[in-house]
Amino acid sequence: MSEILRKQFLRHVAQTSPAPQLIEVERAEGVFFYTPEGKPYYDLISGVSVNNVGHGNKAIIEAVQRQVADYMHIMVYGEMVERPQVEYAKLLADTLPDPLDSVYFLNSGAEAVEGALKLAKRYTARTEMISMRRAYHGSTHGAMSMMGAPEGEEWKNAFRPLLPDTKAIRFNCIEDLSLITERTACVLCEPVQGEAGVVPPQNNYLNALRERCSEVGALLIFDEIQMGMGRSGEMFAMQKYGVTPDIVCLAKAFGGGMPLGAFISSHEIMSTLTHDPVLGHITTFGGHPVCCAAGLAAMRYLIDNNVVVDVERKGALYEELLQSHPAVKQIRRNGLLLAVELGSSDKLYRIMDLFIEEGILSDWFLFCDTAFRISPPLVISDDEIRDSVRIITKCLDRL
Ligand SMILES: Cc1ncc(COP(=O)(O)O)c(C=O)c1O
User: Fold this and answer.
1) 30 has which bridge partners?
2) From 337's CA, which of 75, 211, 367, 382 has a CA 20 to 30 Å away?
3) How much is the pTM?
4) Are residues 280 and 311 in the same domain?
5) Ligand 1 atom, smallest distance to 252 CA
6) What are the CA-CA distances from residue 16 to residues 19, 21, 139, 156, 308 (Å)?
7) Number of domains in the chain
8) Pocket probe mutation, ligand 1, options 16, 108, 137, 373, max atoms within 8 Å of Cβ
């Protein structure tokens, strides 16, 4: 990277941490991205679970090019009939369990969460909103209010006041379900916790949560922003666990690499947003036709190429190849999302440096800085899994 580019990046592109990785990207293909010097990196983050269909996927490129040539932005969301939105909404309604058949498109995950919270308040006419400890739902004020406490206090405290009448309960804890009451508008829950360091549900927890919400009339919102679109080994994690929420939030891989989010509910619940007041939730760019065309092409690609069927096997292969290394204390996994536990943040920071040296892009988790993430594009081949494990092992050996 040239010194000028590096300086301009640091000076003019707003930073989110004091130590950005500073790797220049020239192009990306499949499970790799390349620097201008031609150094390949295995992308084991996938833009944080975004590039499920792989970089440079021809189906997505063609869909985007076609849509860009036809039309881009016309009018704020919900006013005009735009074919990419309608076709994507229909495919989602056909794939998701009943009665999830009404899709509100937005631009990002945090916005999907914001919309879902507003819908729940509006539909139930209640105000209390419950989330799970060690949950991450986005960085806007509303989504951040739902970040699990007390672990999230490090972030939340700096930005108060946030939304009132929110509280966090323990994920997988049946006892805490009694904290959900007739006052509760909604419970927001990732069916598999991502940023907590990959924590799957246990002991029928999601069924019990569903039952408790129905009992007291609170809406159950699933945040499938990280796990949806195949990462869990089913198209949606709710299908893996056989539990249907009242609202589901999608983003990340949902846009096939373009910025797109949505909250999806039944026609009955969603229709409350059309009145009292009208235009109570609106967006200029939400459901942008180019993003919908990309997302639709990505979902069709997953279906037509049976990509999701192989996800569990590929995740298990990573687990099998890594679990016996002495530096690995534990592997927590759901589909193709793995947290490889090293038991120490010092080791974690060290291995991140070694990964960069050896050509692996990985990451840790917001609420778990002792484990590294493996969440490659779902299209990764068995040979690529074995080869990336060879490099990871080389780095583990050097710890
Ligand atoms: C589970 C979950 N929900 C919500 C979000 C926020 O999505 P976005 O960054 O698109 O606002 C994320 C992002 O990491 C996430 O992992």
Assistant:
1) 55
2) 211
3) 0.97
4) no
5) 10
6) 9, 11, 12, 16, 33
7) 2
8) 137
